[in-house]
From TrEMBL:
Belongs to the purine-cytosine permease (2.A.39) family. It is a multi-pass membrane protein. One of its GO terms (cellular component) is plasma membrane. Keywords: Membrane, Transmembrane, Transmembrane helix, Transport. Gene3D superfamilies: Hydantoin permease. It comes from Paractinoplanes atraurantiacus. One of its GO terms (molecular function) is transmembrane transporter activity. This is Nucleobase:cation symporter-1, NCS1 family.
Length: 466
């Protein structure tokens, strides 16, 4: 049983079903620790390093861009977290209420690809960290780091929360030590503080990257609040999640800024080791260990989303812990192939992956948040979410699907990546404001269209009754 008396090491029996009130437990404080601890890892360092090593920004501009991006993106992410205690179901299952039972599959499948992409990225950095500390070859280290991460989804929710709380203390301490050694004991190499050149393209590229770092958690952040009592409250859940995710990410990214500025030609793991020379092995080891925690979270939610797809197609299927484990192993295998194929040009591949990911996540988050906070006010028919025909929400919501597709299309001219730069982004000097445009267009459009649809439906019912 997953109630208050369940052991942390006990395998979670639930997958995507609604969590009964009798099994709710935890406080908002645990939302701070899991998101603070999960973000202090090597991938976060690498994201900060992009600002100086890839975009070539001076340190001050990189820090400002990262701060704005994390603060704004964190708001979007935390608004999703606040839905968990009220709904008691995984975030991607709740998406059926906006897109319909079958209409939601497009978004869910894209999100599964996102989980696998993040898992692969973490495997590369975790493997590099393990190789640097132990002397093992890089490829076996990458595979081993991924295999360790499977333990998280195997045991489930309670275990992942426990690991997040533990790493918030251990990794938080390692982060403090890293800053002391990097800036106080060793100091930055000569000329690094004044290196780099400002560009609006780089500034907005980094700002967008940081915002997406937070927004990318939106499709599964409420998976880690769905066991909490309904009386947890929207505000406590919001602020605990926001502060944990933003401070954990921002501080670690700032460390990455120094790594990228000081050692732009080195990979993030090697650069971090050089910057914190003297305690580098300890810092790299702890940050590498955190990757296993974050990857366990990615894999857990990837499994839940995959189960959501399977349960939609095969409604009589009653998946349990064993199904979650088998699916997690399958996703790990796919991520391993991606990690080994893209490890040699990691930072560029990761940057493109993140910026293109924003294009498909932004319209979904716009639809979900407007629907939850402004149209339904958090009141949903939970039973309908588990019906193959979508119950009161139907199989397809054409308004939500059209807004989602349009949200992707309107962003394309504003995209700026090494793979593709849109015509408007080119005229703006390479500045990427695609996610801002996506939110600005889809939020009001979805609200107006759904209001009009609801009014038309109500009028038709009134005419029939008359």
């Amino acid at each position: 049983m997953d109630g208050q008396n369940a052991s942390t090491l006990q395998v979670e029996s639930h997958t995507i079903e609604h969590i009964p009130v009798t099994e709710r437990h935890g406080t908002a404080r645990s939302l701070f620790t899991i998101w603070f601890g999960a973000n202090i890892m090597l991938l976060t360092v690498a994201t900060g390093a992009v600002a100086t090593a890839v975009y070539g920004l001076p340190i001050w501009a990189a820090v400002v861009a990262l701060a704005i991006g994390n603060l704004v993106g964190g708001v979007v992410m935390a608004l999703h977290a606040a839905q968990g205690p009220q709904m008691g179901v995984p975030q991607m299952l709740q998406t059926r209420a906006q897109f319909g039972s079958f209409g939601s599959l497009l978004v869910v499948i894209i999100v599964i690809a996102m989980y696998v992409g993040f898992f692969a990225s973490n495997m590369v950095l975790g493997g590099q960290a393990l190789a640097s500390v132990t002397g093992l070859p890089e490829t076996p280290s990458i595979v081993l780091m991924g295999a360790i991460s499977v333990l998280g989804p195997l045991l489930g929710y309670r275990f992942l929360h426990m690991l997040g709380g533990l790493m918030s203390v251990v990794a938080g301490g390692a982060l403090v030590i890293a800053f002391i050694w990097a800036l106080g004991v060793n100091g930055l190499p000569s000329g690094v503080a004044s290196s780099g050149s400002f560009s609006w393209m780089g500034f907005f590229g980094v700002l967008s990257l940081a915002a997406l770092w937070q927004i990318a958690y939106a499709p599964y952040v409420s998976d880690y609040s769905r066991y909490m009592p309904r009386d947890t409250g929207v505000r406590p859940a919001f602020w605990a999640t926001w502060s944990g995710a933003v401070f954990g990410s921002l501080l670690t990214m700032i460390l990455g800024v120094f790594v990228g500025a000081a050692f732009p030609e080195e990979d993030s793991v090697t650069g971090l080791g050089h910057l914190t020379s003297g305690v580098g092995a300890l810092v790299v080891a702890v940050f590498g260990l955190c990757i296993a925690v974050s990857n366990g979270m990615n894999l857990y939610c990837g499994a839940l989303s995959s189960i959501t797809v399977g349960q939609t197609v095969f409604p009589r299927w009653k998946p349990g812990a064993s199904a979650r484990t088998i699916i997690s192993i399958a996703l790990f295998a796919v991520a391993m192939v991606m990690a080994l194929a893209g490890k040699d040009n990691f930072l560029v591949n990761f940057t493109n992956f993140m910026l293109l990911l924003m294009c498909v996540l932004v319209p979904w988050t716009a639809v979900n948040l407007v629907d939850y906070y402004y149209l339904k006010h958090g009141k949903y028919d939970i039973k309908s979410l588990f019906e193959r025909d979508g119950g009161v929400y139907g199989r397809f919501n054409t308004v939500a699907i059209a807004c989602y597709v349009l949200g992707i299309l309107v962003q394309i001219p504003f995209l700026s990546t090494t793979i593709y730069t849109g015509p408007i982004a080119s005229r703006l000097g390479g500045v990427d404001i695609s996610w801002i445009v996506g939110l600005a267009v889809i939020c009001p459009l979805y609200y107006v269209l759904m209001k009009r649809t609801s009014t038309s439906a109500a009028s038709a019912v009134a005419v029939q009754e008359a």
